[in-house]
Amino acid sequence: MFQERCGNTAIGYLLSHRLKVACDLLTHTGMNLNEIARASGFEYDTYLIKQFKAKKGISPTKYRNITRSSLRPSSR
Question: 49: which residues sit within 8 A by CB, 6+ positions away?
C-alpha cells in the first residue's frame, strides 16, 4: 500500500529522506561524518558512506566539497 501511494517502499523512502538530511548537513554544517550519520538516522558512519556512494555516485566528503564550493561567491 505504501509503495502504491509513494512509488517507493517504506524502507526506500526512509533511506532517501536520511540521505537528503545528510546532504543538507554536509553542505551547511561543519559536522564530521560520524555526527552527520547519527543526526540523519544512520547508526554508523560507514553505512552512511556506503549508502551515499551507492545512491549519489560520490563520497560524502566529495559531495561536501562540491556543494560548498558552489555556495562561495565567485571573486571578480
Answer: 33, 59, 60
